[in-house]
């Protein structure tokens, strides 16, 4: 080596070798630098385009919610975004294709919806220069699956106004346990009222939202144990329609605006049959009044009042499947097969269980492995939905109490229910509630022997007191006002009536009562009878002996039902199928302002095509 270095020719050779090494090193460093710059550009495009893909999916969903009735396929407006820095200018193009298609969830249930296909591309340059800029080889593409317009069946519990028909707060309390979504367009009230399994507080296992705030009547609540899935205040309001336009598109029955018509519908699987009732014109009736009745002496005066009869005709029938709309009052019960919605323009009364042909009573219709894919029921009223206390069946004229039972039983409702009524006052708004909320005993018909003749005495209370009542002669607070009870007269009417078992959903204009105190402290009647204003005499806790007939007169709980109030306990469970398989033509839930309340299902990244 030293000979090479000492030799002049060797010096030149070394210099040449070093020069080659220097050139190669420079080229290598330049290559590394170029690769670093290019890699930085790719990484930059990757990050930016991923952010833009997310924002484009959200933008497309918002556009789709506002254009629910647009053509089946359409493109969103192109959006350009320019990003500049000291050493880089980039322009990104954001565009989406919206296509309507069925969306299938993990349970295999399909619902109408749409897919937003979004493509993000980028070029070097900004403004006019971007037209000739080098395209990035990085492209991002995703498909955002969105279930179409939600219906009100998608809420476990929805209330437009959380106040009662007396315009007083209605509280969730200890025995109340609700699953899945709960929403109110106004404040939600809770209280520690005892009972239940949460220390006297209600329990919400699903998300709770309110356009107002959460209010407590019992101090600071334990929020985490009450709202197990959290709660959100101040969210947007939903439009709650007053007319069931979509249900009116179905098969129509009855006569519009006729309050003297009632339909009874008994459902059995895929078919229904029933009765059409026509209420006759009022006729005058009279009742002589005695100081003591049955009468030992001449009468004191005569009551005069109007009564109406109902003439029932059997023979109406039809298929259960599809949409049925009755222009009059509707009484309904039965086991439903297929997908159906029954609606009416007047009050809808439940006269028995609403069950599904393919689901055993007491079991959930959405149980994995035993999913009922065929039977869905919707019940819609343009007034209120009421659990009927009792009725006289036109088939046998006998009294029936089909909606009362022991704790755990009572009435089973496998349906999505919607009470849309928007009345002229808070007393007439649509609610989900129960009939005969302030029971009192009344004297039944009795047979007595007078002057050696066996006689049946009927409507005894009408023969003892002034009716209709007057200011000078008010009706007694402990005796039932005539015909307030649909089975009047009844010696021992029921107070506690068991449990409302719902596998479905409830939506209503106002919060309807499903349980009352024997005497309402927030809206006390003070012994006054004025039923339209919910003043119904004195306390429902009544127990006395008739002074003339010697028979026991009292209110009582239905056998096996416990408690010291009037009405029902709650067992409300959501039918998770309603997140996808809504009853046909059920009212849609639109956010105020017109946007549909669509639900994002999944977002999938895929290999990007060259164009949409």
The residue fraction in helices comes out at 10-25%
Rounded radius of gyration (Å): 36 Å
Query: How many domains make up the 3D coordinates?
Result: 2
Q: What is the beta-strand fraction?
A: 35-45%
Q: Given the structure, what is the number of helices? A: 4
Mean pLDDT: 89
Main β-sheet description: 13 strands, mixed
Instruction: Provide the low-confidence segments as ranges.
Output: none
Number of strands: 43
Distance between the termini: 68 Å
Principal-axis shape: elongated
Derived structural class: mainly beta
Overall description:
The protein has 612 residues and is mainly β. The protein has 2 domains: 2-149 and 596-606, no CATH class; 154-587, no CATH class. 12% of the residues lie in helices and 38% in strands. The strands form 11 sheets. Strands 6, 9, 12, 14, 16, 22, 24, 26, 30, 31, 35, 36 and 41 form a 13-stranded mixed beta sheet that branches. The chain has a 7-stranded mixed beta sheet with strand order 21-18-17-23-25-27-32, with no helix packed on it. Strands 1, 2, 3, 4, 5 and 43 form a 6-stranded antiparallel beta sheet that branches. The longest helix is centred in the N-terminal third of the chain and has 59 residues, at 8-66.
